[in-house]
Write a structure and sequence with these properties.
By secondary structure, this protein is α+β, with helices and mostly antiparallel strands. The chain contains 15 helices and 10 strands. It folds into 2 domains: 172 residues, no CATH class; 158 residues, no CATH class. A 5-stranded mixed beta sheet has the order 1-2-3-4-5, sandwiched between helices. A 5-stranded antiparallel beta sheet has the order 6-7-8-9-10. Strand 8 and strand 9 form a beta hairpin. The relative contact order is 0.09.
């Protein structure tokens, strides 16, 4: 339709867009929001795990009994990596005694029968990290080997293979989950209570729209894009960056509160204090660290869709092991699960970026202020243990010729 150069061009293209009947149909479909979209949970991995735990639990209030769990287990056990059991044995399991657990030993979903356990790792948008699949396998085998049969599952949108332990983890996709739900609704839909029906159908729509990208509204959106590419590209190129707006506000906060900003990155905001900087100066022999060569920083992470995290992070350098031991002198500090870029004393703040306009509302600003103020206690404790070990740190710097 032509390049957009002037305000007149914008208005003309916009009118063509909103007068398109496909645009009206898409608008109508998007008005029918799901419960998960309302609460900002459509892309939140934790919320998906919670809902799946409810669906798979025969004793839950959905009224479907073990129907969904049985179909899920048949799918899982049909893979050769489920070495201890086959899909034929699904009918022989005791569903009266089954327990569906969330976050047992940090495993997303843990299903326990009298003679069988299933560990399921759910990766919606995040990726494997810190050898977690190996760690979960070792934990389950140590606890149940010789006592119960064990099966391991790796759930992702496309059913991709696990990077670690791919010979042990059965890959399963959200497409398969959606097919199971659709099939059960077709057969048992009339027996569902009103609330359960709304929740399950909303969840199915959420999977199609936000995880599988095959909802009817997506087909309409693609058709509209082809017809109105110029105006939509123009809008996309000039849309506000919600994470950037949040990052800028936190940057303003740390400056107001007297903190010192550290090395920059688009999805992270890092800072320190005068006390920390005086004890841990920047070092010269940096390899693979931050751009400003800091050994330690306090870091906001804005990667996740549903929360912001705040933690103490160590850069890879010769003093890392010494600093880890010093940080662990803080009572609530626990050893890091990461060898590279270890982090400690992580706290989170819930957020929904999709609700953010051109600026933050007052409630979100209050939450941000409170979040940072609460973490000041952690920062004070960090300063105290660093001051206590100041001579040891200075000796380490001297020994490493910093």
């Amino acid at each position: 339709m032509g390049e957009i150069k002037t305000e007149f061009d914008v208005k003309k293209h916009y009118l063509n867009l909103v007068n398109d009947i496909d645009y009206d149909q898409l608008e109508l479909q998007l008005e029918a929001v799901t419960f998960f979209e309302i609460i900002g949970a459509s892309k939140a991995e934790i919320r998906h795990s919670n809902f799946l735990a409810w669906l798979l639990d025969p004793k839950a209030s959905h009224g479907l009994g073990e129907t969904i769990l049985k179909r899920f287990l048949r799918q899982l056990f049909s893979d050769d990596r489920a070495k201890d059991i086959t899909e034929i044995e699904v009918e022989n399991l005791n569903y009266q005694s089954v327990n569906i657990l969330r976050e047992w030993q940090h495993i997303d979903l843990f299903i326990e029968f009298d003679n069988l356990v299933i560990a399921l790792e759910n990766k919606l948008y995040s990726k494997e990290h810190s050898k977690q699949l190996t760690r979960y396998f070792d934990i389950v085998e140590q606890e149940y080997k010789g006592i119960k049969k064990t099966v391991y599952g790796f759930l992702t949108p496309e059913g991709i293979e696990a990077i670690d332990e791919s010979d042990k983890y059965v890959s399963i996709s959200y497409f398969e989950i959606a097919e199971i739900i659709e099939r059960v609704i077709q057969i048992r839909g009339s027996t569902l209570g009103e609330n359960a029906s709304v929740y399950i159908n909303d969840y199915l729509k959420t999977l199609k729209r936000h995880v599988m990208d095959n909802d009817q509204s997506i087909e309409l959106a693609q058709k509209i894009y082809k017809s109105h590419k110029d105006i939509l590209d123009f809008i996309f190129e000039n849309k506000p960056d919600e994470r950037g707006i949040v990052t800028d506000y936190f940057r303003k906060l740390i400056n107001q509160k007297g903190f010192k900003e550290g090395s920059r990155n688009k999805r992270f905001l890092r800072f320190s204090t005068d006390t920390i900087k005086s004890i841990l100066p920047e070092y010269k022999q940096q390899k693979g660290g931050w751009s400003n060569n800091e050994p330690l920083l306090i870091e906001f992470s804005f990667w996740k869709d549903d929360h912001i995290s705040l933690k103490i992070v160590l850069s890879p350098h010769p003093l890392a092991e010494i600093l880890q031991n010093i940080i662990l002198e803080i009572n609530e500090a626990e050893p890091s699960t990461q060898k590279a870029w270890p982090y400690f004393l992580r706290k989170t703040m819930g957020i929904n970026y999709y609700d953010i306009g051109l600026e933050l509302d007052e409630k979100l600003k209050e939450n941000a202020n409170r979040f940072l103020d609460d973490y000041k206690t952690v920062i004070s404790k960090l300063e105290e243990v660093l001051k206590k070990n100041k001579e040891k740190i200075a000796d380490a710097y001297n020994n490493n010729q910093y």
